[in-house]
């Protein structure tokens, strides 16, 4: 690839998946100092009207005890099972990402939304919570109302979901470099080696 062109990486996430917060840290570590451009892509694991998970049921506490907490402890990342019940739908948060991305704040938005849910126990399906995040990032909360109501933004969101289907994405986080898909939690060292190889090729 041309030296001055960033390597483009698509990263599919869902804001209610704890491994997306953990995976974000891995991606940051793997890409530090590299000429890469990350595009955060939507994958709603449980789109409306599919019922979302409830933290008081057995599944989430068991999954966190056996997988999430040990992984987070090993990585040194603060994370806790949110008490929001049932868990929020994430379409509105993804629509908010679209405007944040246009303002060059996609990385910051993704980081703050994930931490709002998994560190601050906030309901990220609530528009007021997302508006507060906009304010924190220096964005106008009125723009969130506009983008959520926008036919164009909603159509782009559907296109993003369709693209996930085209790539065969079923788990988050998942990455795509060109047509090569890396599914699940990446290893920082291996991912960096792979990205360097792609940049140098």
Describe the protein's architecture and organization:
The protein is an alpha+beta fold and 201 residues long. The chain has one domain (7-200): 3-Layer(aba) Sandwich (Glutaredoxin). The protein is 52% helix and 11% strand. The chain is built from eight helices and four strands; from the N terminus they run E-H-E-H-H-H-H-H-H-E-E-H. Strands 2-1-3-4 form a four-stranded mixed β-sheet. Strand 1, helix 1 (18-31) and strand 2 form a beta-alpha-beta unit. Helix 1 (18-31) packs across helix 8. The protein is globular.
Number of domains: 1
Distance between the termini: 6 Å
Main beta sheet strand tally, sense and closure: 4 strands, mixed
Mean pLDDT: 96
CATH-scheme architecture = 3-Layer(aba) Sandwich
Judged by helices, strands and strand pairing, the structural class is alpha+beta
Strand line-up in the sheet with most strands: 2-1-3-4
Sheet-strand content, in percent, reads 5-15%
What is the count of helical runs? 8
Secondary structure: helix percent: 40-55%
Rough outline: globular
Indicate the low-confidence ranges by residue numbers. none
- What's the total number of strands? 4
CATH C-level class is Alpha Beta
Q: What string, H for helix and E for strand, traces the elements in order?
A: EHEHHHHHHEEH
CATH fold-level topology: Glutaredoxin
Radius of gyration equals 17 Å
**Fourth-level CATH superfamily:** Glutaredoxin
